[in-house]
């Protein structure tokens, strides 16, 4: 397979960067053609193992830099690759190796969330974790996976929690022997009894180096080794100034490849981090026999507790607790017992296989989603692993209009969806039309039909919902033609806790005849074409065909149901289940969609406006028979004046009906598997 890997910056001091290179080497070693894309490379690599391609970008802020690289990487990998893997939050990924906490969990206030920094970071995060995305996530801890599921409603089957993974080259518990340890300490100028602490990292404040410096003031006989910071950098000078006269107890070593040797020389790894999804160096330390003092903010702090190879400081952090822990670890017997416990923990857990497991899943041999082909041939199209969106198209005896709608769906720029045709009792002509689409739509297509017993749109929509597989249901009438960006725009507007109401353009009878009988394609109109139709009296307005980014303005009417229709409506499947779907009590034309929206609002689901984004073209048809409207209005009045959120006869009622195989009045036909 041709595999692309993206990481914004490649440098040897970062744990994420080391994992990125290791995974690239593993995949290349299995015979895959691997290309690593980065904006900045400071890590010399053997060019014969895999290719490195620079995608340089410039920006005045990190979030702008990330966004620019994400866009360049997406463009560079749009074709020609079978798998696309990200080690940062990028765009259009197949797999994301997640070593960062969720932006949504950082406790930013309303002002911070309104700034470009948060909005860009949240957008990039949504591109991988949003419930309508297809990216498979490699999480490094259970708590990290739980945070993302909570904040983004990411499906559990899209997340694999990997076993911790250590580069075998950095797994050296043998160096902890008395002979090796004495030799290494002597080479560094330490006596066998001198207390030595070790800190490893590149972000001094985030990883709590200032907290260690505060503790070092109280223990002047201790030496602190700092690895990962350039001795000539401003950061290093600031650290020396902080210590003042105590700087003689500090050694800033820069980037070091011999971290296992430094771990053998040290007595304690001190890692009081303020934020750390994992803390790879923590795991490396304890399995190499170096006791660790860490904060509970570190994801891998759990391994310190499980192994008994150190001390975990509770949150909120208190400096006296760190000082006390380091004072306690001056006890040589305690250090020795913790060292042995850590080495034994490493032998028991074998913490080296996580990236091999990731490589298996990337190849398709051990994926949690069985739809991934295994393996893909070289240069094949990128795998589509599941269908997150269901387009539910309601129809009745109008195959020519349904043909136009399917034609619009076949031209979608976003092709990650299924189509479920909710057929309210049409004749065999509709069945024949749908069979003619076999192989043409290139998307899963299901025909859900029940016997014609009058207008029962609510019931057939519910049957279609029960037959759908998507996490997000977009309702579309069988006479509403979508433009090519219809699914893409709905996907971008989708947000947990909100349903999206789109609008429509009404077409004249004359224009409708040209569409149905002369193959006119209004979904391909330019703005000039639409203006010409408006001035010619063939459409009633042009605004729904315009594209405008309204942002927060889309939420200014969160409890407003007026004007919303199910001919262009998107609702989360979980929210449909919450209110038990449409109410099948509504028969005859009118108000069944209003009933649903009122109950959704009452259940705490808000309205989001889809105008200037998701507009459809509504073919002309005669007015519907309004004979049942008074009865339906009476039911709607009862809903408005009550407090009920569930349907009287909804999804649960249909589930208890006769099975389709025993009921000739109801059929489900899989047109395209």
Summarize the structure.
The protein has 24 helices and 24 strands. It has 673 residues and is an alpha/beta fold.
Structural summary, described in words:
- The protein is an alpha/beta fold and 673 residues long.
- It folds into three domains: 2-161, Glycogen Phosphorylase B (Rossmann fold); 168-349, Glycogen Phosphorylase B (Rossmann fold, 3-Layer(aba) Sandwich), CATH 3.40.50.2000; 389-672, Spore Coat Polysaccharide Biosynthesis Protein SpsA, Chain A, CATH 3.90.550.
- The protein is 36% helix and 18% strand.
- The chain contains 24 helices and 24 strands.
- The chain is elongated.
- The protein starts with a strand and ends with a strand.
């Amino acid at each position: 397979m041709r595999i692309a890997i993206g990481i914004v910056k490649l440098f040897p001091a970062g744990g994420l960067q080391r994992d990125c290179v290791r995974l690239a080497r593993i995949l290349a070693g299995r015979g895959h053609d691997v290309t690593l894309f980065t904006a900045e490379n400071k890590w010399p690599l053997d060019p014969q193992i895999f290719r490195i391609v620079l995608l340089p970008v410039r920006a005045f802020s990190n979030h702008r830099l990330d966004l620019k690289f994400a866009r360049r990487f997406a463009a560079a990998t749009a074709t020609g690759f079978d798998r696309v893997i990200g080690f940062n939050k990028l765009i259009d990924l197949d797999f994301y190796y997640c070593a960062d906490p969720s932006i949504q969990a950082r406790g930013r206030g309303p002002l911070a969330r309104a700034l470009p920094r948060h909005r860009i970071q949240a957008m990039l995060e949504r591109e991988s974790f949003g419930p309508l995305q297809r990216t498979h996530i490699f999480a490094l801890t259970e708590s990290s996976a739980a945070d993302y599921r909570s904040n983004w409603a990411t499906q559990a089957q899209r997340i694999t929690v990997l076993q911790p993974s250590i580069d075998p080259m950095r797994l050296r518990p043998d160096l902890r022997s008395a002979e090796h340890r004495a030799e290494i300490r002597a080479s560094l100028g330490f006596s066998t009894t001198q207390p030595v602490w070790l800190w490893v990292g590149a972000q001094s404040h985030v990883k709590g180096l200032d907290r260690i410096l505060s503790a070092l003031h109280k223990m002047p006989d201790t030496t602190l080794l700092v690895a990962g910071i350039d001795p000539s950098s401003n950061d290093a000078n600031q650290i020396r100034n902080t210590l003042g006269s105590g700087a003689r107890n500090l050694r800033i070593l820069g980037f070091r490849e011999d971290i296992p040797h430094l771990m053998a020389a040290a007595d304690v790894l001190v890692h009081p981090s303020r934020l750390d999804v994992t803390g790879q160096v923590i795991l490396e330390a304890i399995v190499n026999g170096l006791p660790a003092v860490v904060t509970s903010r570190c994801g891998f702090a759990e391994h310190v507790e499980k192994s008994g190879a150190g001390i975990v400081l509770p949150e909120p952090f208190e400096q006296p607790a760190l000082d006390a822990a380091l004072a306690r670890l001056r006890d040589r017997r305690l250090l020795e017992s913790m060292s042995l416990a850590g080495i034994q923990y490493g032998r028991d857990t074998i913490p080296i296989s996580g990236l091999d497991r990731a490589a298996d899943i990337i190849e398709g041999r051990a994926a949690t989603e069985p739809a991934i082909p295994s393996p893909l041939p070289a240069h094949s199209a990128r795998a589509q692993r599941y269908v997150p969106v269901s387009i539910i198209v309601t129809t009745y005896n109008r195959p020519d209009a349904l043909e136009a709608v399917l034609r619009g769906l076949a031209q979608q720029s976003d092709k990650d969806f299924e189509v479920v045709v909710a057929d309210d009792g049409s004749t065999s002509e509709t069945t024949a039309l749908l069979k003619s689409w076999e192989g043409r739509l290139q998307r899963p297509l299901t025909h859900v039909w029940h016997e014609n017993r009058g207008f029962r749109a609510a019931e057939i929509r519910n049957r279609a919902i029960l037959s759908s597989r998507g996490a997000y249901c977009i309702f579309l009438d069988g006479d509403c033609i979508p433009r090519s960006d219809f699914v893409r725009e709905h996907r971008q507007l989708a947000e947990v806790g909100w349903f999206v109401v789109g609008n429509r353009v009404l077409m004249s009878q004359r224009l409708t005849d040209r569409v149905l009988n002369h193959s006119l394609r209004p979904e391909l109109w330019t703005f000039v074409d639409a203006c010409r139709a408006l001035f010619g009296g063939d459409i009633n307005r042009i605004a729904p065909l315009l594209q405008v980014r309204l942002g927060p303005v889309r939420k200014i009417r969160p409890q407003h149901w007026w004007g919303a229709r199910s001919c262009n409506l998107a609702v989360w499947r979980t929210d449909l289940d919450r209110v038990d779907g449409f109410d099948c009590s509504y028969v005859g034309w009118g108000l069944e969609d209003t009933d649903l929206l009122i109950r959704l609002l009452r259940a705490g689901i808000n309205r989001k406006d889809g105008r200037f984004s998701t507009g459809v073209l509504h073919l002309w048809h005669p007015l519907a028979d309004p004979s049942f409207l008074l009865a339906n209005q009476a039911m709607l009045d009862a809903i408005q004046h009550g407090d009920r959120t569930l349907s009287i006869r909804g999804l649960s009622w249909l589930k208890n009906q006769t099975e389709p195989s025993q009921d000739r009045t109801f059929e489900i036909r899989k047109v395209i598997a």
